[in-house]
Write a structure and sequence with these properties.
The chain is an alpha/beta fold. It has a 9-stranded mixed beta sheet, sandwiched between helices. A 3-stranded antiparallel beta sheet has the order 7-13-12. Strand 1 and strand 2 form a beta hairpin. The two termini are 29 Å apart. The protein binds S-adenosylmethionine.
């Protein structure tokens, strides 16, 4: 164990993440977020982003992702942040280790606009792969806002297992007979009815609520990389913006939960976890990264 910093429910370790992972208890972490090595071949101040060809990179990741699954809580979530170089390989590896039914989404995060590309489409997004340990039991808090909106609870086309007849009061809803299927489970539908959020329009079910639909394209200004913005500067080369972590942590954890980042870098995950009252464990092989993280944590009020 190489503990670098420990204070107020926050631990930072300066070592290879595989070593640390092996020493952690199973089923203990509510959320793992890792902004992994993208395998760009770039050399940074304190680490080299080069794991060989994609197959070699996958072999490097395999024991680490296997350990991450072991330490994740039974209802925990994991987000793997990568880009076009490794995303398909990581998807296959994650499917193999977590199971295809534990894949929840592929999030496209816009990191920049109008970079200096020539004779190609400008790559403006990176990818966050979102999995859960148990697809039947996981935390997902909907975000709520001021205004109400109406969204359909069905889609067109008959889908096996999604055409059951349900009731809203006296009204019978038979989506299959209308060539449609349910987007939500019977239990979710009952919860929405109890919350007074269901409305029928022309016999079809809609949800009328103040839930903010969060899509899988994250392109708001607070999602952009800080180097493309003029209002912030970072002591670390490749920081992710706080907006990304703020959204993830609020949606899949509760205050007091344990968040982990095993590719800590400049410590964005640590800083946002602390701001949101979550416990945190982080790891980086680079002493510089650990130092930058600790100075940011100490700078928080
Ligand atoms: C892309 S950066 C993470 C940036 C971070 N998300 C932020 O917001 O600042 C990846 C980090 O992984 C670290 N790293 C590389 N190999 C590692 C290993 N085997 N164990 C732990 N950390 C490692 C690097 O030192 C680097 O700081």
């Amino acid at each position: 164990m190489s503990l670098y910093y420990s204070k107020d429910d926050i631990q930072i370790h300066n070592q290879d993440n595989l070593e640390l992972l092996k020493s952690l208890p199973e089923n203990s972490i509510n959320l793992i977020y890792c902004d992994i090595l993208y395998n760009t071949g770039k050399v940074f101040d304190d680490y080299s982003d080069d794991l060989g060809n994609p197959e070699e990179a996958m072999e490097w990741y395999r024991p680490r992702i296997t350990e991450m699954k072991r330490v994740l809580a039974e209802n925990g979530s994991i987000f793997i942040h990568c880009n076009w170089r490794m995303d398909s390989y990581m998807r296959i590896l994650m499917d193999e280790i977590f199971g295809t039914n534990c894949f929840r989404n592929r999030i496209y995060r816009q990191h920049s606009k109008e970079r200096g590309f020539f004779a190609n489409f400008d790559s403006q997004v990176d990818i966050i792969l979102y999995y859960v340990k148990d697809h039947k039991s996981f935390v997902f808090h909907e975000l709520r806002g001021e205004s109400k909106r109406i969204v359909p609870l069905f889609e067109n086309g008959v889908l096996e297992g999604r055409g059951d007849v349900r009731f809203f009061g006296e009204e019978k809803i038979d989506l299959k007979s209308m060539n449609k299927h349910w987007l939500i489970s019977p239990a979710q539908f009952e919860d929405m009815i109890k919350a007074g959020e269901v409305q029928l329009i022309n016999g079809l079910p809609y949800r009328f609520s103040n839930v903010i639909p969060v899509g899988n394209l994250w392109n708001e200004p607070e999602m952009l990389d800080t180097y493309t913005r003029t209002d912030t500067a970072d002591a670390y080369d490749t920081p992710k913006p706080e907006g990304v972590l703020d959204r993830i942590i609020r949606i899949v954890t509760d205050p007091g939960d344990l968040v982990a980042d095993f590719f800590l870098g400049g410590g964005t995950t640590a800083v946002v976890s602390k701001k949101l009252g979550r416990r945190f464990i982080g790891c980086d092989i680079s002493e510089k990264a650990c130092g930058v993280t600790v100075s940011k944590l100490e700078g928080l009020k």
